[in-house]
Amino acid sequence: MFALTKEISGMLGWDASWLSIILASCLAVGQALEVYTNHFHVHTKEPGIENAHKIAKRHGFINRGPVLGSDKEFHFVQPALSHARTRRSVAHHAKLHKDDDVLHVEQLTGYRRSKRGYRPLEERLQTQLDFSPVQSPTDPLYKYQWYLKNTGQAGGKARLDLNVEKAWAMGFTGKNITTAIMDDGVDYMHPDIKNNFNADASYDFSSNDPFPYPRYTDDWFNSHGTRCAGEIVGARDNGVCGVGVAYDGKVAGIRMLDQPYMTDLIEANSMGHEPNKIHIYSASWGPTDDGKTVDGPRNATMRAIVKGVNEGRNGLGSIFVWASGDGGEDDDCNCDGYAASMWTISINSAINNGENAHYDESCSSTLASTFSNGGRNPETGVATTDLYGRCTRSHSGTSAAAPEAAGVFALALEANPQLTWRDLQHLTVLTSTRNSLFDGRCRELPELGLAIPDNHKTTSGNCTHFEWQMNGVGLEYNHLFGFGVLDAAEMVMMSLVWKTVPPRYHCSAGAIDTPYEIPADGNLILELNTDACVGTATEVRYLEHVQAVVSFNSTRRGDTTLYLVSPMGTRY
């Protein structure tokens, strides 16, 4: 059932009725001012990298190599052009287009991708810590890592954590699992990271070399990837910083974020890099969190993600973990095409007392949550590694939440290396728990209208809150936290006995192809009946993912809200 309502907010998704995996899709839109880079996507008529090198050389280009392992698609760069310009380079495009050995060429547009971290806190709390084994024989920041073991420190809720100590006690610490940090680089010489760094799986797609070390800036802006890496593989009991969730695992650095404008091929090659050596790809970035940007993966990037889940890890499927966003209540993570994709696992955050962080976005596409800081109390920051051998206690935002989830998934993959990408989504849904998570944000009723479905909200005074709901199969969910906080021990234990899900089939449920006008009262309800492709080779017996493609015209995007209602009555 579809319901279009003239209201505020963006597009919302739907939950599938069996495992109720909440996912949604948003359409990508371009920037107001198109930017053209000096990167070109070239399709050659004849296969082979040597042939591509010859084409690039005779026209003054540099061939950066194949796209997604293809022998006929290549990434060319023109050094004579600036990285960003407002017009296409007709002359350089024509040189390649007229070449008899070139089938097709496209000059790539540039777009913004933002790191997800609460910067005001970073600027206010930039005290860097430097420890040595002489000062402490154990990890000195572990007592501040409340998200690993919450004893109530800094006013937190005791036992509200990832429950990793129990998983460690069972012997699972991330061994033989590699997580790639797709970011601004990793300080792989850091004493808490260096022994767990996987150089063979690392690459710098910003500088096109095998050394993904962060570029120096005075404000340490490129510390983002190093901080994320330490959350996953920070060494245990070495007297430096804290400890990672999967401290015996490996981390790969994929430097791709540190540049003025992102391109489709840099993203695609990053997400398709060494898919049989990398198990998990962790991304703490996305479209600008400004409440008005609706964007997502472009063509080559989407192909890379789909190829990863179908072919990565020798056919088991690459795991893509995404931070849901830091735009707060003025933004909606459904309109981030990376976090909302059915191929990724979108992670939101909570602070140490169970409340949502003030920068958290709400949406139906969030699958689960981990922890970050609330930007209020310095003691609730995320403690991890920092640049140049240092440590920090001020990592924040959903940037910090996604790597924690990647670490938990590494423990699950160690427990059962045969888990597919779909298995891990199922395990996330089934083992995540409400625990003490709650929506502590006050949303004034006049500003909300019907932006939150009635059965998802409670009213107290002049405030409205996202409430926990029970779906048709008895699982609790929340628009802020998904199915709850990850539980490492529960996930590991279920992974040990998990039976791989049956093959996935795609069924087109049907279509409503008659145009409708939203009536004057502002509500339009459309029903779609389906037989689930019964009697065909793609008959659906268990519903796992739902994707709805909807086209509509509106004078302002924010004036229209889309709800999907499942056959069992669950509404998003």
Describe the structure.
The chain has 572 residues and is α/β, with parallel strands linked by helices. Among the domains are: 76 residues, Alpha-Beta Plaits (2-Layer Sandwich), CATH 3.30.70; 315 residues, Peptidase S8/S53 domain (Rossmann fold, 3-Layer(aba) Sandwich). The chain contains eleven helices and 25 strands. The strands form eight sheets. The chain has a seven-stranded parallel sheet with strand order 10-11-9-12-14-15-16, with helices on both faces. Strands 5-6-4-7 form a four-stranded antiparallel sheet, with helices on one face. The protein has a three-stranded antiparallel sheet with strand order 24-1-25, with no helix packed on it. The longest helix is centred in the last third of the chain and has 18 residues. Helix content is 18%, strand content 19%. It is an enzyme of class 3 (hydrolase).
Biggest pleated sheet? 7 strands, parallel
What would you call the structural class?
A: alpha/beta
Main CATH class of the domain at 117-431: Alpha Beta
CATH architecture of the domain at 117-431: 3-Layer(aba) Sandwich
What would the principal axes of the Cα set say about the shape? globular
Q: Work out the helix count.
A: 11
Give a short overview.
By secondary structure, the protein is of the alpha/beta class. It has helices spanning 49-58, 90-97, 119-124, 164-169, 224-233, 264-271, 299-311, 398-415, 421-431, 445-448, 488-497; strands at 2-6, 14-15, 22-23, 35-44, 62-66, 73-77, 102-110, 114-115, 178-183, 203-204, 250-255, 280-283, 285-286, 319-323, 344-350, 368-371, 382-385, 391-395, 443-444, 457-460, 463-466, 469-470, 476-477, 523-526, 560-564.
